[in-house]
Every structure is written in C-alpha cells, then in structure tokens.
Design brief:
Ribose 5-phosphate Isomerase B, Chain: A; elongated; 49% helix
Amino acid sequence: MRLAVGSDERATVAEEVAGLLSQRGIHVELHGALKPGDATQWAGVALRVAQQVADGHCDQGLLFCWTGTGVSIAANKVPGVRAALCIDAETARGARRYNDANVLCLSLRLTSQAMAHEILDAWFGTTEVDEEERESIELVIQADRQPADRHRLDRLPEAARAEREREANAGQRA
C-alpha cells in the first residue's frame, strides 16, 4: 500500500505516525512539514496529498493540521477524495465502512499518540464497505463528476422517486 502523509506542522504525533506506518510495511510518501523543504501551508499540503490519492499515485492519504478541519475541507475539494476528520477509532471505522473514506484527517491538537494508534488500527482494519451504503457513496462519486452548478437536490434518487410518485398520484386523481 502507498500512503500520502502530510502535515502543516512538524509535530511529534505526525512524525511518530509516519514512522509507525513505515514499520507496518506501508510505503509512506511525505508532504508538507514532514518533508524537508516542502511548502507547509495547510491548504497546499492537503491539496497535494488529496491529488496523489485522486490520481491513483497513492492508495490513501493521511493529513494533519491543528484542528484537522482545514485539511479535511481542502482535501474534499479534490474530485475523487472522500476525506474524513476522525477523533476516535469508531469514527475512523465508520468513515471507512459507511463512507468509503480514502483520506484520514487528524487534529494535531486533540490526537494523542495512543489515540492515533487506535484510529489507525480501526482505519486500516476496516476493509469492507457496508453494501447498504453503496448507493449513497455512488451519489458522492457522481457529484464529483458533475459541474458545480449541477449539484442540485432535485437530481438525487430520493427526489426523483418522490417526483414520480407525485406524478403517478396526480394521474390517478385525473
């Protein structure tokens, strides 16, 4: 597995996690403050990591910033990326199982080394997506492929079904 890992700060937890992943046999590609000489602006780091995942150069991504929010927002701007800010193992497990998330975002402020281990175990230990969630995940994938002005609620399957039902009911009344 190839994993793009980036952080806007050279923080102990980010460095230790990158080292731990390498020890687990994961090929780690470093970005931002984890890579000497690389730009460290959180948005730029997040966009570079997300693009590595979207382009297929890396299987997944891992991002750090002070809150984790900024990198998750930026990464989710890249089509094909489903970034999830996770503060515990159960959230990480759910992000993989129910959302097929491919970029894990962590808060440098909140994530202890012990919690990082738990989150990573849950993230990488969850390899199957819940089949009941496939339709929702596919909607997100389709939204990535559409121009921004076409992201309208009336295009969602639920709205289309409701419209067909209204039309059918109106026809029965006529």
